[in-house]
Amino acid sequence: MAIVLAAGKGTRMRSALPKVMHKVAGLPMVGHVLAAVRKAGIADTALVVSPGSDWAATLQGAPATFVQTEQRGTAHAVLAARAAVTPSHTGVVVLFADNPLVRPETIALMLDRVEGGADVAVLAFRAEDPTGYGRILMDDGRISAIREEKDASAEEKAVTLCNSGIMAIRVGPALDALGDIGSDNAKGEFYLTDLIALGRERDFVMVVEEAPFDEVLGVNDRTQLAAAEAVFQDRARAASMAANTLDAPHTVFFSHDTVLDEDVHVEPNVVFGPGVSVGAGATIRAFSHLEGAVVSPGATVGPFARLRPGAMIGPDAHIGNFVEIKNAAIATGAKVNHLAYIGDASVGGGANIGAGTITCNYDGVNKHRTEIGAHAFIGSNSALVAPVSIGEGAYVGSGSVVTEDVPPGSLAIARGRQVNKADRAPVQKRTPDRKP
Q1: Which residues contact 410 (CB under 8 A, 6 or more apart)?
Q2: Catalytic residue among 256, 265, 338, 368
Q3: Which domain CATH number covers 144?
Q4: 338 labelled catalytic
């Protein structure tokens, strides 16, 4: 099982939002950790929080929550969830909710080590500048202790093998030993890391695994939050480019759940918000922003397009420059190429929506739908006042304000008749330019 520690105060974030709820790639940091646990194949998870942490109920999967009533250190926090551990569990992996980049494979490896016979497995990393990190001390190739920075001697501070905080513990004597940890340290807290020295005394089998620094990066302030975001984006870009083309990878931003099929072409300065999937062979052109949208194979979006939640772009459809789509389905081969807003609507296959067209979907109280049939043509600068239906193959004349349904195959013209008055234009009198 997994125990995720999320009871820290996070004062360095200087935010009313709990630290672990700050987002990386659109998902709270704690959500990343819980997702990694699930992907590692771990069914049982306990989340340790501080009193009054109402945010825990909003998390996907609703993990079992335990309250650490007093902030007395990491060992004390693990023991707060001790009741979640049952005899059916062989090992427990302890994770931190502010380590959003830890990989499922690493979590599974740590648990495998204790399920394979180790009493304790520690996840370490190498640091050129280890200042601030707990040092892992080795003796004859075996781990002997983990020393926190504040308690380390000058010689120990020179050690570059550092503790990530992530630890797997075998259920039984090793886990029970947490209750014997003392608080004889600079902060007077019960450190999980002191299990190592205690385990050495009790002949526990203890092993060390190493991970890259960027995988175990902890977030304590907004600068580190930005660093975690950068690592996530680099990972996502590299994974995407295995089968897709990103013209300027460093300008493309992904969400935690972005899905690109094969042969997608993404031009520069594109942002994928949460809930986006893009089908094979689609093109997302420059400066487009997508969120909560599905783009079907072969479709083209942008440049400068915005797809909002509920946008469904059909195969080979075209969404052009300065077009916004919200809660609307654009069917196969339909075109919305210029300067349009299509919201709460459906657009049939092969329909053409002219420049400047808007669906007037909101009456100030309620939203209403616009239905546009297949192969309909909506002339430029038209306003479709919902609820309204434009029939299959209908034609709406440019500049129309349509307030009634248009039958299939009909021509609708809804605009004032033009009247020209001869010699009625005002004549502007010009004054001669004056030099200063």
Answers
A1: 391, 394, 395
A2: 338
A3: 3.90.550.10
A4: yes
